[in-house]
UniProtKB/TrEMBL annotation:
This is Glucosidase 2 subunit beta. Residues 288-301 have a biased composition (Acidic residues). PANTHER family: GLUCOSIDASE 2 SUBUNIT BETA, N-LINKED OLIGOSACCHARIDE PROCESSING. GO terms for biological process: N-glycan processing. Keywords: Coiled coil, Disulfide bond, Endoplasmic reticulum, Signal. Gene3D superfamilies: Mannose-6-phosphate receptor binding domain. The keyword DNA-binding does not apply. SUPFAM superfamilies: Mannose 6-phosphate receptor domain. One of its GO terms (cellular component) is glucosidase II complex. Residues 288-312 are annotated as: Disordered. The keyword Disulfide bond applies.
Length: 519
């Protein structure tokens, strides 16, 4: 813990080489400080603030002007304690541990000469009033520090190496995506042309079929006209036959011997009377009906082009006429037992017109067009997908591309947390294995601006499953340099707001930066 406090400020910035450099500089500072009479407890970097320019000196916060000699007089004059850098007179003041040139660090002035050896001051310089004696641990601390610094440097170097591979991967996959995009764009143009061609072909066969269907309608109408003419002739013949039959019966009625009281003749005459009455009425009605439905052949010819599909489920006019007359004719034959005297023609079969579906040619043209359209849609979707990938923010050197879609898990006793980079985060109960969605990747949040180095050190995942009576779950993922991609801690400081910490080579310094630091 102490050790950590001691090294934390420099841990992340210094390499071992730099440390050595610092030590040399520091030692020379001590010599120089002695020469220039820098007040006790003032670091070389702050020496200019304590430079003697006259008999007085102004507190660093400007709160007072004191005699230069009053610096370190064990009396606190300045509000910020800056006049007592080497004593404990000011509670807020800072004391600079000399640390025999090992590790430079400040402690609060209040901890100077307080009877406790401060671990930050490994040389015991904080207890200089002689009341207690603090051991000089600087050799040990320095060795420990160097060991740690070496480990850190090795890890950063290895991390930098892996990062360079990530960068290489990022560049390559971007190039691949770009060439894939170009290929798809060219393909899209070709599919567009194919769609247009097939559309033209489809229109052509559609028009051809339309023209053919017009011709077919024309032929059909002509056939119906012939049929109607035939039926009319037939109707005429039937009328003549009915008239003949009626005349026979009429003569029988007129000429029969009334005294003979033949019951069959009487029944026939009664039947004849009833039939004539009904027949005349029906003929009258049929006349009206025929007039209503009369088709002007010229008119039909003119309308041919707009001829609608002929309804096949209803009986046609010719069928209706023929049907009605046949019924009457058959009635007479039946009523008067004349059936055997009439030679029946075979019953007319009225074939159903075709179902009128599309032709095979049109269906094939439709299929070809649909196929081209489908292909075009697919290419467009692929382009959208590739563009989405290209638009993803994989860092200044594309170092995060390698991690896209990679999932990392961490067992935190009650739950196992998983983060799939640039995708989503989940929390799975270790008891019942129920999985809870913690959010989708939204953005980088390491800093406000992309220009800031820290920008690419934290990600935000939002829109997770809503917390009962609370917000939607979300995750902040903090990244630190490490040679492994590994979540090392998960916390839920606020209900349903999770903090994950993970090491990854992607945030290690680049090789160039390391080389630059070592110089
Ligand atoms: C579940 C988990 C917890 C969360 C509670 C909120 O138990 O997702 O992390 O705090 O729900 O009700």
């Amino acid at each position: 813990m102490v050790y950590k406090r001691l090294f934390t400020p420099i841990k992340s910035n210094l390499t071992f080489g730099l440390l050595i450099l610092n030590l040399i500089v520091f030692l020379s500072v001590l010599v120089h400080a002695g020469q220039n009479n820098i007040p006790k407890g003032v670091a070389k970097s702050d020496a200019h603030l304590y430079e003697k320019k006259g008999s007085t000196w102004k507190c660093l916060d400007g709160s007072a002007t004191i005699e230069y000699e009053a610096i370190n007089d064990d009396y606190c004059d300045c509000a910020d304690g800056s006049d007592e850098p080497g004593t404990s007179a000011c509670p807020n003041g800072r004391f600079f541990c000399t640390n025999s040139g090992h590790i430079s660090s400040y402690i609060s002035s209040s901890r100077v000469n307080d009877g406790v050896c401060e671990p930050e001051c490994c040389d015991g310089s904080d207890e200089y009033d002689g009341k207690i004696e603090c051991p000089n641990d600087c050799e040990k601390v320095g060795a420990e520090y160097r060991r740690h610094a070496e480990q850190l440097a090795k890890m950063r170097a290895k991390g930098a190496q892996i990062k360079s591979e990530y960068i290489e991967y990022g560049k390559k996959s971007k190039q691949q995506l770009e060439s894939e995009l170009n290929r798809l764009k060219t393909l899209l143009e070709a599919t567009k042309i194919r769609v247009a061609e097939r559309e033209v072909a489809l229109k052509k066969v559609q028009e051809k079929e339309k023209a053919e269907s017009k011709t077919k309608d024309h032929i059909r109408i002509q056939k119906y006209q012939v049929k109607i003419r035939t039926l009319r002739e037939r109707e005429e013949r039937l009328r003549e036959q009915i008239d003949t039959l009626l005349n026979i019966l009429k003569d029988m009625k007129k000429d029969h011997n009334q005294n003979y009281h033949d019951m069959a003749v009487k029944a026939a005459i009664k039947g004849y009377d009833e039939f004539v009455e009904e027949y005349e009425r029906e003929m009258e009605e049929n006349m009206e009906f025929d007039q209503e439905d009369e088709i002007d052949e010229e008119e039909v010819k003119g309308e041919e082009s707009q001829a609608p599909e002929i309804e096949t489920s209803l009986p046609s006019l010719s069928e209706r006429i023929s049907g009605a007359l046949l019924d009457v004719y058959n009635d007479i034959l039946e009523t008067f037992g004349l059936s055997e005297y009439v030679i029946r023609k075979p019953e007319q079969q009225y074939s159903r017109p075709s179902d009128g579906g599309k032709s095979k040619e049109v269906i094939a043209a439709y299929d070809a067009y649909d196929e081209a359209e489908e292909e075009k849609r697919k290419v467009e979707n692929d382009i959208t997908e590739v563009n989405k990938k290209l638009e993803k923010d994989y860092g200044t050197q594309l170092e995060f591309a390698k991690l896209d879609g990679e999932c990392f898990s961490h067992d935190a006793k009650d739950y196992t947390y998983t983060i799939c980079m640039f995708d989503k985060a989940t929390q799975k109960s270790n008891k019942d294995h129920v999985s809870t969605h913690l959010g989708y990747f939204e953005k980088w949040i390491g800093a406000e601006s992309k220009e800031d180095d820290k920008y690419y050190t934290a990600q935000l995942y939002t829109r997770g499953t809503r917390c009962w009576n609370g917000p939607e779950r979300s995750v902040k993922l903090y990244l630190e340099c490490g040679i492994e991609n590994k979540i090392f801690s998960v916390a839920e400081p606020e209900k349903c707001e999770y903090i994950m910490k993970m090491t990854t080579p992607a945030v290690c310094p680049s090789i160039e930066k390391l080389n630059h630091e070592e110089l």
